Amino acid sequence: MIDEILERIAAAGANGIKKTDLKKIFGKNLDDILEKLIEKDQIFVERKGIIYLIWTRKNYIAYLSQNDPKFKLILNMMCKNHTVAKVKDHDLGEAAIKISEQNITNEYPDFKIEFDKYLNESSTSIGWMSFSQIRKKICESKKLSKENFYSLATELVERHQGKYEVSSGGEEGIIMRGLVHGFVRNL
Q1: CATH value of 2-61 in 1.10.30, 1.10.10, 1.20.960, 2.20.28
Q2: What is the pTM (predicted TM-score) of this model?
Q3: CA 73 to CA 175: how far, in whole Å?
Q4: CB neighbours of 159 closer than 8 A, spacing ≥ 6?
Q5: Pairing relation of β-strands 164-167 and 183-186?
Q6: What is the DSSP annotation of 33-63?
Q7: CA distances to 68, 149, 166 from 109, in Å
Q8: CATH architecture label of 104-186
Q9: What is the C-alpha to C-alpha distance for residues 92 and 172, in angstroms, rounded to an integer?
Q10: Which candidate in 16, 67, 148, 183 could, as Cys together with 167 as Cys, close a disulfide (CB 3.0–4.6 Å)?
Q11: Residue 132 · residue 171 · CB < 8 Å
Q12: Above 70 in pLDDT, residue 104?
Protein backbone atom coordinates (compact mmCIF):
# COMPACT_ATOMS: atom_id res chain seq x y z
CA MET A 1 0.00 0.00 0.00
CA ILE A 2 2.93 2.35 0.67
CA ASP A 3 4.11 1.96 -2.92
CA GLU A 4 0.62 2.75 -4.23
CA ILE A 5 0.45 5.90 -2.11
CA LEU A 6 3.90 7.03 -3.29
CA GLU A 7 2.90 6.41 -6.91
CA ARG A 8 -0.24 8.54 -6.51
CA ILE A 9 1.76 11.34 -4.89
CA ALA A 10 4.46 11.18 -7.59
CA ALA A 11 1.84 11.19 -10.36
CA ALA A 12 0.49 14.52 -9.08
CA GLY A 13 3.73 16.21 -10.18
CA ALA A 14 4.80 19.67 -9.05
CA ASN A 15 1.19 20.59 -8.19
CA GLY A 16 1.06 18.09 -5.33
CA ILE A 17 -1.96 16.09 -4.26
CA LYS A 18 -4.54 16.95 -1.64
CA LYS A 19 -4.52 14.82 1.48
CA THR A 20 -8.32 14.55 1.28
CA ASP A 21 -8.07 13.01 -2.19
CA LEU A 22 -5.67 10.36 -0.87
CA LYS A 23 -7.88 9.73 2.15
CA LYS A 24 -10.85 9.01 -0.15
CA ILE A 25 -8.80 6.34 -1.91
CA PHE A 26 -6.78 4.80 0.94
CA GLY A 27 -9.00 5.33 3.99
CA LYS A 28 -8.20 5.80 7.66
CA ASN A 29 -4.79 4.09 7.64
CA LEU A 30 -3.41 6.87 5.47
CA ASP A 31 -2.32 9.11 8.39
CA ASP A 32 -0.02 6.43 9.87
CA ILE A 33 1.55 5.70 6.49
CA LEU A 34 2.07 9.40 5.74
CA GLU A 35 3.80 9.86 9.12
CA LYS A 36 6.24 7.05 8.27
CA LEU A 37 6.94 8.56 4.84
CA ILE A 38 7.51 11.99 6.40
CA GLU A 39 9.98 10.52 8.90
CA LYS A 40 11.91 8.93 6.02
CA ASP A 41 11.91 12.26 4.09
CA GLN A 42 10.16 10.58 1.16
CA ILE A 43 7.30 13.08 1.11
CA PHE A 44 6.68 16.68 2.09
CA VAL A 45 3.40 18.06 3.42
CA GLU A 46 2.49 21.73 3.33
CA ARG A 47 -0.64 23.41 4.62
CA LYS A 48 -2.34 25.86 2.26
CA GLY A 49 -5.26 27.38 4.15
CA ILE A 50 -7.34 24.42 5.25
CA ILE A 51 -5.89 22.06 2.62
CA TYR A 52 -2.84 19.83 3.08
CA LEU A 53 -0.83 19.27 -0.10
CA ILE A 54 1.63 16.39 -0.42
CA TRP A 55 4.64 15.99 -2.74
CA THR A 56 7.47 13.54 -3.30
CA ARG A 57 10.96 14.92 -2.68
CA LYS A 58 11.62 15.47 -6.40
CA ASN A 59 8.25 17.10 -7.06
CA TYR A 60 8.54 19.37 -4.01
CA ILE A 61 11.86 20.74 -5.24
CA ALA A 62 10.29 21.31 -8.67
CA TYR A 63 7.31 23.04 -7.00
CA LEU A 64 9.58 25.32 -4.96
CA SER A 65 11.77 26.17 -7.94
CA GLN A 66 8.67 27.22 -9.91
CA ASN A 67 6.77 29.05 -7.16
CA ASP A 68 9.24 30.38 -4.62
CA PRO A 69 11.54 33.09 -5.99
CA LYS A 70 13.81 32.91 -2.91
CA PHE A 71 14.33 29.17 -3.32
CA LYS A 72 14.98 29.59 -7.04
CA LEU A 73 17.53 32.33 -6.36
CA ILE A 74 19.35 30.25 -3.75
CA LEU A 75 19.32 27.18 -6.01
CA ASN A 76 20.70 29.18 -8.93
CA MET A 77 23.40 30.72 -6.72
CA MET A 78 24.39 27.31 -5.38
CA CYS A 79 24.58 25.86 -8.85
CA LYS A 80 26.66 28.75 -10.22
CA ASN A 81 29.09 28.77 -7.29
CA HIS A 82 29.55 25.02 -7.01
CA THR A 83 30.25 22.22 -9.37
CA VAL A 84 27.64 19.51 -9.70
CA ALA A 85 29.85 17.26 -7.55
CA LYS A 86 29.83 19.84 -4.74
CA VAL A 87 26.07 20.28 -5.07
CA LYS A 88 25.73 16.50 -4.66
CA ASP A 89 27.87 16.69 -1.51
CA HIS A 90 25.47 19.26 -0.06
CA ASP A 91 22.63 16.73 -0.55
CA LEU A 92 20.21 19.09 -2.28
CA GLY A 93 18.54 16.10 -3.79
CA GLU A 94 18.40 14.49 -7.18
CA ALA A 95 15.83 16.96 -8.51
CA ALA A 96 17.93 20.00 -7.62
CA ILE A 97 20.88 18.54 -9.48
CA LYS A 98 18.67 17.80 -12.48
CA ILE A 99 17.33 21.37 -12.45
CA SER A 100 20.84 22.80 -12.20
CA GLU A 101 22.01 20.76 -15.18
CA GLN A 102 18.96 21.64 -17.27
CA ASN A 103 19.94 23.64 -20.32
CA ILE A 104 17.66 24.82 -23.12
CA THR A 105 20.29 24.39 -25.79
CA ASN A 106 20.95 20.75 -24.83
CA GLU A 107 17.46 19.45 -24.04
CA TYR A 108 15.33 21.53 -26.40
CA PRO A 109 17.67 23.16 -28.91
CA ASP A 110 14.84 24.64 -30.96
CA PHE A 111 12.71 25.89 -28.03
CA LYS A 112 13.85 29.51 -28.50
CA ILE A 113 13.19 29.30 -32.25
CA GLU A 114 9.69 27.89 -31.72
CA PHE A 115 8.97 30.39 -28.95
CA ASP A 116 10.02 33.34 -31.13
CA LYS A 117 8.07 32.00 -34.10
CA TYR A 118 4.79 31.79 -32.19
CA LEU A 119 5.44 35.09 -30.43
CA ASN A 120 6.00 36.90 -33.71
CA GLU A 121 3.15 35.37 -35.68
CA SER A 122 0.41 35.78 -33.08
CA SER A 123 1.23 38.90 -31.08
CA THR A 124 -1.03 41.95 -30.89
CA SER A 125 -0.37 45.16 -32.79
CA ILE A 126 1.76 46.42 -29.90
CA GLY A 127 3.65 43.12 -29.68
CA TRP A 128 2.18 41.47 -26.57
CA MET A 129 1.28 37.78 -26.48
CA SER A 130 0.01 35.68 -23.59
CA PHE A 131 2.28 32.88 -22.41
CA SER A 132 -0.73 30.55 -22.35
CA GLN A 133 -1.27 30.92 -26.11
CA ILE A 134 2.39 30.22 -26.84
CA ARG A 135 2.35 27.31 -24.37
CA LYS A 136 -0.61 25.65 -26.05
CA LYS A 137 1.08 25.73 -29.45
CA ILE A 138 4.51 24.59 -28.26
CA CYS A 139 3.20 21.91 -25.89
CA GLU A 140 1.10 20.53 -28.71
CA SER A 141 3.94 20.44 -31.22
CA LYS A 142 6.74 19.38 -28.83
CA LYS A 143 4.68 17.20 -26.45
CA LEU A 144 5.92 19.20 -23.45
CA SER A 145 4.15 19.33 -20.11
CA LYS A 146 2.88 22.66 -18.83
CA GLU A 147 5.54 22.61 -16.07
CA ASN A 148 8.37 21.93 -18.54
CA PHE A 149 7.18 24.72 -20.83
CA TYR A 150 7.14 27.30 -18.03
CA SER A 151 10.49 26.13 -16.72
CA LEU A 152 12.02 26.54 -20.19
CA ALA A 153 10.23 29.86 -20.80
CA THR A 154 11.47 31.23 -17.47
CA GLU A 155 15.02 30.20 -18.28
CA LEU A 156 14.73 31.69 -21.78
CA VAL A 157 13.44 35.06 -20.56
CA GLU A 158 16.05 35.22 -17.77
CA ARG A 159 18.90 34.38 -20.16
CA HIS A 160 17.80 36.89 -22.79
CA GLN A 161 16.58 39.81 -20.66
CA GLY A 162 17.48 42.30 -23.37
CA LYS A 163 15.33 40.48 -25.94
CA TYR A 164 12.07 39.93 -24.04
CA GLU A 165 9.82 42.07 -21.88
CA VAL A 166 7.25 40.45 -19.59
CA SER A 167 4.15 41.93 -18.02
CA SER A 168 2.36 40.80 -14.89
CA GLY A 169 -1.20 39.54 -15.01
CA GLY A 170 -3.09 36.76 -16.64
CA GLU A 171 -4.24 33.37 -15.41
CA GLU A 172 -0.91 31.63 -15.99
CA GLY A 173 2.64 32.56 -16.86
CA ILE A 174 6.15 32.62 -15.48
CA ILE A 175 6.83 33.55 -11.87
CA MET A 176 9.27 36.43 -11.43
CA ARG A 177 9.75 38.47 -8.28
CA GLY A 178 6.82 36.60 -6.75
CA LEU A 179 4.32 37.68 -9.43
CA VAL A 180 2.72 35.81 -12.30
CA HIS A 181 3.82 37.39 -15.57
CA GLY A 182 1.33 36.20 -18.18
CA PHE A 183 2.36 38.30 -21.17
CA VAL A 184 5.56 38.63 -23.19
CA ARG A 185 6.84 40.61 -26.15
CA ASN A 186 10.05 41.11 -28.09
CA LEU A 187 12.10 44.23 -27.43
Answers
A1: 1.10.10
A2: 0.45
A3: 12
A4: 104
A5: antiparallel
A6: HHHHHHHTTSEEEEEETTEEEEEEHHHHHHH
A7: 27, 13, 22
A8: Orthogonal Bundle (1.10)
A9: 28
A10: 183
A11: yes
A12: no
